[in-house]
Amino acid sequence: MNPLFTQLSLRAELHLALSKAGFSRMTPIQSESLPELLAGKDVVAQAKTGSGKTLAFSLAMLQNLVLSAQHIQGLILAPTRELANQVAEEVRKLARELGNVKVLTICGGEAIGPQMSSLEHGAHIVVGTPGRVEEHLFKGTLDLTQVTHFILDEADQMLDMGFVDAIENIAVYLPPTRQTMMFSATYPKDIEQLSARFMQSPMLVKGETESLNRQIKQQFFPLKNNKLRFNTLRLLLLQHKPQSCIVFCNTKVETKKLFLELQQTGLQVAVLHGDLAQIERQRMLLRFANKSASILVATDVAARGLDIEDIDMVVNYHMALDPQTHVHRVGRTGRGGKKGFACSLYGENETFKVTQLSELYEREFNPSPTPPLSLLDKPAYKPTMVTVMIDAGKKQKVRAGDIVGCLTGENGIGSAQIGNITVQDNQAYIAIFREAVKPAMRKLNAEKIKGKRIKAKRLV
Ligand code: ADP
Ligand code: MG
Questions:
Q1: Which atom of ligand 1 is least distant from the CA of 90?
Q2: How far is the CA of 304 from the centre of ligand 1 (A)?
Q3: How far is the CA of 431 from the centre of ligand 1 (A)?
């Protein structure tokens, strides 16, 4: 059995927050790293995705936070806006019992002006992406001179994205007395070099590393030339008709291009890459998670850290750059004892990669035949759900119950035909079974919710 959180001497408010969240036992990376972190040591922690790294550094940071002080005490760097927001949410949740802890996110892709004024109002903790944090430092709009906790989350990913210079520039602004913590899913050489540069005799702790899942069925498809890539993917999708499939590309440019091409074939596709505005990103994720988009095209970076269950198929549109990345990608399917399935497309000069993977998985991966071309004449398959967006949300006092009430009223649809409902500030998203969409739209557009007429729109 893993050790209990009660064995740690934490503030009572943190113990309370943990028990309210239903967390009683530490995960292995938490029990390995927390004693060192709470003792104030610099730590490099490595453990696979989903092992609870966020909670480890958040606890260590909040344990020493001085609420009455108005300056920034914790700085967390994360590779993407999505992850920064996820981390900020988790820190806020954990800090709730402590009182009014101010956590700000400072990410690229958002207007810089509002960030400056939020910073002027003061914050205890800043979570940001390296580029934007660096920008604020250069402009003189961010004061990090009193930071006591400096955290690099998903450090390997930040290095892959070329943030090393930004990180080093940021470190210069921090007091040398601070505690530095680095969290990473993998531990490549460059992480070691990076940690040596601005950490003080760091301890290396390891939790669970991503294990090979040999239960996942894997197929490999050789491509005689690159022109065959797109149709081979289409054939595989039309043959298997996955409900939730992630298609991995190696670059953002390829991701954008493939998304548009797949969309043109009539498939319901979502895409994730660094250039999406926050609202688009949320919409993409929502449609994929509620099963109204069957395919998600993504880069490794964009897909990192996202908690989406029930992936029935993974496609490597391009072979991963290294075997470890392949293991990560493929490990998205077949979770929790479910059946997993992965297809990889490879060029003739990449046969060595398939050989490498055969050795790694200790299984013989032979080339698979492409599905019959006649499949291309079939119409694109449709997902079970459709997402409907309405133009009212929390600010208009709309709750999920109001929406269900409207939909299931007279001449409405059955409650079993309604899936996830997500209510945001000024809009709400409703997943509805495809066959019930028409009556649902009619109902939403005809009725009032909270005394107000609303407009419903089908998202494609
Ligand atoms: P990582 O950063 O290692 O990929 P996260 O920190 O995002 O993983 O944690 C994954 C999930 O596990 C989160 O939903 C988190 O709330 C949950 N979690 C973290 N620690 C515990 C714990 N001790 N017990 C139960 N669940 C936990
Ligand atoms: Mg994480």
A1: 16
A2: 14
A3: 27
Q: The tokens 């990410």 sit on which residue?
A: 107
Tokens representing residue 212 in the block: 């090979």
Q: How many CB atoms lie within 10 A of CB 98?
A: 17
Evaluate whether 5-206 and 385-458 have a shared fold: no
- Angle ∠(250,277,283) on CA atoms, nearest 5: 90
Residue entry with tokens 């680095």: 182
Report which ligand 1 atom has the smallest distance to the Cα of 49: 4
Nearest to 73 by CA among 145, 169, 17, 129: 145
| Per-residue model confidence as pLDDT tens digits over 279-333 | 888 899 999 999 999 999 999 887 876 667 789 999 999 999 889 889 989 988 9
Residue with tokens 């893993």: 2
Tokens of 307: 């908690």
What are the structural domain ranges in the chain?
A: 5-206, 217-377, 385-458
pTM assigned to the model: 0.72
CA 2 to ligand 1: nearest atom: 23
- Cα–Cα distances (Å) from 88 to 53, 64, 69, 145, 200, in that order, read 13, 17, 19, 21, 26
Could you report the per-residue pLDDT of 337-348, keeping only the tens digit for each? 788 999 999 999
Q: Counting ligands in written order, which one lies closest to the CA of residue 83?
A: 2
Q: Are 64 and 177 in contact (CB under 8 A)?
A: no
**Distance (Å, whole) CA 344 – CA 365:** 11
Looking at CATH, the fold of the domain delimited by 385-458 is given as Alpha-Beta Plaits (3.30.70)
C-alpha radius of gyration, the chain, whole number: 24
Q: Which of 51, 87, 151, 304 has the most ligand 1 atoms within 8 A of CB, as the residue to mutate?
A: 51
Provide the CATH topology of domain 5-206: Rossmann fold (3.40.50)
- Rounded to the nearest angstrom, the distance between the alpha carbon of 242 and the centre of ligand 1 is 28
Give CATH for domain 217-377. Answer: 3.40.50.300
- Quote the pLDDT of residue 253: 94
Contact in structure between 308 and 187 (CB atoms under 8 Å): no
Ligand 1 atom closest to the Cα of residue 25 is 23
Contact by Cβ (8 Å): 46, 207: yes
How many angstroms is it from 56 CA to the middle of ligand 1? 9
d(CA 248, CA 329): 8
The DSSP symbol for 313 reads E
